[in-house]
Amino acid sequence: MADRDFLLPQRSTVRTMRERLVSPVRDFRIDALGAGAGPRPGGVRALAAALGLTMPVSVFADVPQAQPVLVFKLTADFRKDPDPRKVNLGVGAYRTDESQPWVLPVVRKVQQQIAANESINHEYLPILGLPEFRSNASRIALGDDSPAIKENRIGSVQGLGGTGALRIGAEFLRRWYNGTKNAATPVYVSSPTWENHNGVFSAAGFTDIRSYHYWDASKRGLDLQGMLQDMENAPEFSIFVLHACAHNPTGTDPTPEQWEKIASVMKRRFLFPFFDSAYQGFASGDLDKDAWAVRYFVNEGFELFCAQSFSKNFGLYNERVGNLIVVGKDGDNVLRVLSQMEKIVRVVWSNPPAQGARIVATTLSSPELFSEWRDNVKTMADRILLMRAELRSRLEALGTPGTWSHITDQIGMFSFTGLSAKQVEYLINEKHIYLLPSGRINMCGLTTKNLDYVATSIHEAVTKIQ
Ligand SMILES: Cc1ncc(COP(=O)(O)O)c(C=O)c1O
Known about the structure:
Blueprint: H1 11-20, H2 25-33, H3 43-50, H4 70-80, E1 87-88, H5 105-116, H6 131-142, H7 147-150, E2 154-160, H8 161-176, E3 187-191, H9 196-203, E4 209-213, E5 215-216, E6 221-222, H10 224-233, E7 239-243, H11 256-268, E8 272-277, H12 287-290, H13 292-299, E9 304-309, E10 321-327, H14 331-348, H15 355-365, H16 367-398, H17 405-409, E11 414-416, H18 421-431, E12 433-434, E13 440-442, H19 451-464
Parallel strand pairs: 1-12, 3-4, 3-7, 7-8, 8-9
Antiparallel strand pairs: 2-10, 5-6, 9-10, 11-13
Helix pairs in contact: 5-15, 5-16, 6-15, 8-9, 8-14, 10-11, 11-13, 15-16, 16-19, 18-19
The structure holds pyridoxal-5'-phosphate.
């Protein structure tokens, strides 16, 4: 529509402009062109110019430039860097020892089965997602013998990745959590955390996002006392975002005994656990072990949310496969929650995409494919463990100042190296090794070919830059 050419940054200017022309638009067209309301050569802009009107600036003229998302910018910078020694330790995705993305063999196999299955079509999925995906996904988080599953008091919503599951969960809580005034409910995220947690909860409308102690930089480990104290001091019914396993970015999880203490305070203070499970299988290589915390909380009788991502453990990053699990006190509550979830999903993405969910559902519902997937996950986890051991032994052999045991103590995809922002800058600018300013590295960026180079570069950074 050529009329859109006239949209101006300020409404008053739009009105003035329209008033200076002939209104309504249809009459204006007829008057100006004498030719009815059909397509006009040159459009309204040409006409405005002919009438001596100054063309307005863009309606987007006042839009400020936003900062790029750091981790994506880092990868873009890495791609542009022509240096052959370059290493990307920033990206949050698995890489093989050849520095390549990995399509899991079980995923390839299932994709082919799906492609050959002529009974599958492209009809819309239900609003809450593919039923067999939702039930199987929930089952691997909660376990086959989960009391909540047996008592029929769980439900779930297919999300666009873990992010979508978190966002839908946050949106629901802001609308409906524990009565009214939900936007003012404090939401606690760990310090540090995956940077998107803050953004997701504030985009959902929460106005009081706080951080709880998590990382003790001096001992390079969990600050359990700080965390428990923050929970003691939090207003009752506050929402706590907990990383189910393989904490991003620190690679440091509470032990089962520590989780028990956390659960006990949370129960006494009526705090709501919102688990983020983006790395099941990556922490230990064992899906059940990595789900220990979530299962413990469910067994302890908590009502909770758990946002699952299948981006990492299925390597389905761009298929956007996630699941939001709702565990309630009884089935009736859960049904009402899901009815409201439908309302939310309907106005956000209406209904989710099918392909990734089909791959996950098919894999999880066949014992053979499931066991193949477990092996694939273990392959990834084992490579990470190997890289941890190799990096630590190289740094220790070089006599790099400091202790490096945290590299092997930490788990999951990431390691929080303890490198300072200046040392990181040195590594990027002088060594073409890309990592986040926090010192977080993705262990999968390491390979048997670049380990020596990365270790000697870290050694140089630590010894040269204080
Ligand atoms: C802790 C954490 N939560 C959620 C996500 C989101 O995953 P997805 O890519 O499935 O949205 C990530 C991804 O990096 C993550 O690290």
